[in-house]
């Protein structure tokens, strides 16, 4: 039994929830630091408060993926997590701007990010469940479209409320402005409404039907999804060996950082290595005592058993997301200093530059939304790998060109390249990965794949500040050039990826049903 192709509006409906998720995520990214500062946070403390976001995703996504792989009820397999996560995120969006104290706001960030991750993670696996391999590039590209549209709306919402509806964007000290509060309220409505639309409009295949679809896919292409099933679980000694090595090396590096009084940001990576080493030792200890059948142990097993294609994509993702985080962290300081000639946050020029960066970010997200429709066409005419390489090189050129272009009014050219790369990063790696995964582990591996987004984020947070201060003489513009180089390395790494399900032309094309709208 071959999994049927879905028409355009079916794919639209199943991905529509991502629009609301991105609105909530975008409001969080754009306004939480503002809320923290309003409630009295020192500027140096904000990065520590923000570390909740990547760490929460690191922990939550594989657990939710693992659980959703094993769920089937009245709402299906993934949709219960859409609903529960959306309810919790909606509540967090309503409470966050009304937080009376900084510690409550920090706690709400943890809750909000955890809830967004509960909702978001199953959406990636949902595409693998619902679409045949030949349509998955289109499915993930549709998610990229909604991510772009949601990000543009979220970025502009406080400005729209202030300039179109005359809602105040200033308030007394310690009070969050009304424009921010109403933006969060509207975001809550958008998020819950769009996720509910997906839940209502899309029905999931039952487990027995998914097994039949997967059996047919293996007959059609026996290389797909079989690697994991042919591997045996890692033994106890492997856990202990890797755990002890990682714990020892990371522990020594942590002590060295403390003894040499190096930048405190470096502790993020070293302590993270210590924690992961302890986790591996704990997993080995549980397995040694016959307690290996639990979510923690099985997720660690799956991490060691990840397919070869996923390991190759992990390198691509690392360089891609390192570049993205360098852009998100340093574009404002780079543009205000390099193009507007000021580093004084209280100056008019600085605020004009910062406002211009907001427009540029909205622009690249808008470009990504449009590029999402072109990526499947490019993949059909070439291949998914070739399409991804082209898009990453566009992004590399875009980031690097910020160093060369002196007129800030021309930086929109740079953002076109960044937007094309952003659309591809959000879609093509997931489409390639889904063809290397068995359906019964689609959720947990999509969650584990998030590691290769979080790890480069933590790496960027740890070392970019050191590089800018010590090697770039405080010039943030060179961090963007480094990001461009990183995207170039991601393009090179893509050459080495084995795209098992995309080896045939119809797999890359996405099928004619979507093209014709039948």
Notes on the protein architecture:
By secondary structure, this protein is an all-alpha fold. The protein has 3 domains: 8-204, MFS general substrate transporter like domains (Growth Hormone, Chain: A, Up-down Bundle), CATH 1.20.1250.20; 232-303; 307-509, MFS general substrate transporter like domains (Growth Hormone, Chain: A), CATH 1.20.1250.20. 75% of the residues lie in helices and 0% in strands. It has 22 helices and no strands. It has helices at residues 8-15, 17-38, 46-50, 52-69, 79-95, 102-130, 136-165, 178-201, 207-220, 236-259, 267-288, 295-304, 308-338, 348-381, 384-404, 412-425, 428-434, 442-449, 451-470, 477-494, 505-509, 512-516. Helix 2 runs antiparallel to helix 6, helix 4 packs parallel to helix 6 and helix 13 (308-338) runs antiparallel to helix 20 (477-494). The longest helix has 34 residues, at 348-381. The protein is globular and about 65 Å long. It starts with 7 loop residues before the first helix and ends with a helix. The model is unreliable at 504-518 (pLDDT under 50).
